[in-house]
Amino acid sequence: MGIAMENQPQQQQHKNFQLLQTSSEASSEADKKRWTLNDFDIGKPLGRGKFGHVYLAREKRSNHIVALKVLFKSQLKQSQVEHQLRREVEIQSHLRHPNILRLYGYFYDQKRVYLILEYAAKGELYKELQKCKYFSERRAATYIASLARALIYCHGKHVIHRDIKPENLLVGAQGELKIADFGWSVHTFNRRRTMCGTLDYLPPEMVESVEHDASVDIWSLGVLCFEFLYGMPPFEAKEHSDTYRRIVQVDLKFPAKPVVSLAAKDLISQMLVKDSSQRLPLKKVLEHGWIVQNADPSGVYKG
Ligand code: AMP
């Protein structure tokens, strides 16, 4: 699940993967060295996921602050996600966008794999949403616009994200959103309410396991917009089977509270369309009146 590369020849992927073993921006031969733990000063823990821990770290030579994600090979093996990690790491390392968390590189030792990630100083968006319960229209529109731009960029590179949801978003120092997952969040600790993963953000075609394309991300952006404004996803239900039914029927109901503008509801309704070819294209999302009127043109929510 998660970030997926369309039509990328397998050989190309492996070649690119090799490139990651050089330093982050290495272009010259001299720079082509492998990272080791000795290259970093390790700071405070930033959090933990199923396969290991994330630490604040400083690259000694450049003083660059990063987040170092430490994954245990044994756990990756046990969960059979090594191949997926490889693929996702490779895709993410080639994406360069202000709203996509950079992956600078990786290295490993006998027991662990280390991912060198951009540090998102303001942490998890999910926690912020829990704290506020729901976001203002200005804040939601600013976030949705920045994600629409990031997804347009991804789709332009034939990358479908497939796993847009609050748990996969981090916040940078300026308050800018960063898409942060490696697409294997399906296997990580579930930060939601249920024990076995959430269907809430899946579009009808993925719930029904029929073919899907980049427009799955438009659906998820619509679900996200709803959750930003109402504090819960639109098709939430106690039982998975009910969420499933509500998604495939597009059982979309807008609660009376909090009060949300008609324009926001119009945009959500145009993204949550069962026929994926009829969903509002992301470029049109950016031109929608609600986005134009509410999103901060700087792309950053300043509070
Ligand atoms: P994960 O294993 O990706 O679920 O990460 C575990 C936790 O570490 C997350 O919930 C965040 O709180 C934190 N974290 C992960 N990556 C970063 C990052 N790049 N910058 C700041 N905090 C992070």
Written description of the protein model:
- With 303 residues, the protein is α+β, with helices and mostly antiparallel strands.
- It has two domains: 28-118, Phosphorylase Kinase, domain 1; 125-294, Transferase(Phosphotransferase), domain 1, CATH 1.10.510.10.
- 35% of the residues lie in helices and 16% in strands.
- The strands form three sheets. Strands 2-3-4-6-5 form a five-stranded antiparallel sheet.
- Strand 2 and strand 3 (52-59) form a beta hairpin.
- Helix 1 packs across helix 3 and helix 7 (216-230) packs antiparallel against helix 9 (262-271).
- It is globular.
- It starts with a strand and ends in a 9-residue tail after the last helix.
- It binds adenosine monophosphate (AMP).
- Its main location: cytoplasm.
- Residues 40-291 form the Protein kinase domain.
- The active site is at residue 163.
- This is Aurora kinase.
- It is found in: Cytoplasm, Cytoskeleton, Spindle pole; Nucleus membrane.
Estimate what percentage of residues fall within beta strands.
15-25%
The small molecules bound here are: adenosine monophosphate
Mean pLDDT: 85
CATH top level of the largest domain?
A: Mainly Alpha
| Neighbour order of strands in the largest sheet | 2-3-4-6-5
Strand segment tally: 9
Task: Write a brief structural summary.
The chain has 303 residues and is an alpha+beta fold. The chain contains 11 helices and 9 strands.
